[in-house]
Amino acid sequence: MDWKNLPGGGNIEDRRGGGGLPGGGLAVGGGIGGLILALIAYFFGVDPSIVTGGVQQPPVQTQSQTQTGQSDETYQFVDRIVASTDRTWTQVFQQSNRQYTKPTLVLFDQYVQSACGQASSATGPFYCPLDSKVYLDTSFFATMDRRLGGGGDFAYSYVIAHEVGHHVQNELGIAEQVERKQRAARTEAEQNSYGVRLELQADCFAGVWGNSVKGTDAANLTQDDIREAINTAAAIGDDTLQRQSQGQVMPDSFTHGSSQQRMNWFMKGFQTGNPNQCDTFSLPYNQL
Ligand SMILES: [Zn+2]
């Protein structure tokens, strides 16, 4: 993937270099704040309960590190991918006479304050619908390289496009409807099932973005790139993550979908390029 050929111009907020916590820090860790974050933020593939554990300890204020600024490669990369998703979704929304409000991506390290609460690097990438921002600690890319499917630039792009997919759901009012259904759910399994549908749709939306990049000669997307994204989708399936952490798989507690489901829905979006194919809510749950 030749991402450097893609034009930049995304909304990027660079909070790297010790800007994570406001002085005094709001006391939201672990209690209500953590709970709210777990409920309303949408996570990439990491168990939201990590959030509560992750922010209880007030972090040591870090010295302001070297300000990386807009010239470093990570910034450039993220900026181009976000700008690319902006173009994709602006076009899709235009086709149905809607206006797409572009999200902001916040780059951070260690800790970050979002409208959904505080989060740490351990949280993994997430989207907060209250401020319409995607939060990304770029050390997550290194985590992907080491143990989540092997990484690669198109795999990183898939992570960003998945979070942007949650923004699209927010823009379309889907997230709100799902939240209502989740609140009305009688069992935890039922509640989780809505979460899985939402996550798989975000994967499919990421695929829709991938399809639009595939059509751009400049991006030069290869089979290896597609394999990277598939490997990531497989590595962050709930069944795979559970097997690694607990040694067994409990489908009722799935919140993101299985490896197979995540790969399938990403590919559905990628092959069709049509967001209407991403209806993960009409199918019976066992046919997702
Ligand atoms: Zn997600």
What does this structure look like?
The protein has 288 residues and is α/β, with parallel strands linked by helices. The protein has one domain (3-287). It contains ten helices and seven strands. It has helices at residues 32-40, 49-54, 73-95, 139-147, 153-171, 174-184, 188-214, 223-235, 238-246, 259-272; strands at 11-14, 42-43, 104-108, 111-114, 117-120, 126-128, 133-137. A hairpin with a 2-residue loop joins β4 (111-114) and β5 (117-120). α5 packs across α7 and α5 packs across α8. It is globular. Bound molecules: zinc ion. It is a single-pass membrane protein.
What secondary-structure arrangement, pairings included, does this model have?
Layout: E1 11-14, H1 32-40, E2 42-43, H2 49-54, H3 73-95, E3 104-108, E4 111-114, E5 117-120, E6 126-128, E7 133-137, H4 139-147, H5 153-171, H6 174-184, H7 188-214, H8 223-235, H9 238-246, H10 259-272
Parallel strand pairs: 1-3, 3-7
Antiparallel strand pairs: 2-6, 4-5, 6-7
Helix pairs in contact: 3-5, 3-7, 5-7, 5-8, 6-7, 7-10, 8-10
The structure holds zinc ion.
Task: Supply database-style keywords.
288 residues; 9% strand; five-stranded mixed beta sheet; alpha/beta; two-stranded antiparallel ribbon; 10 helices; 7 strands; binds zinc ion; single chain
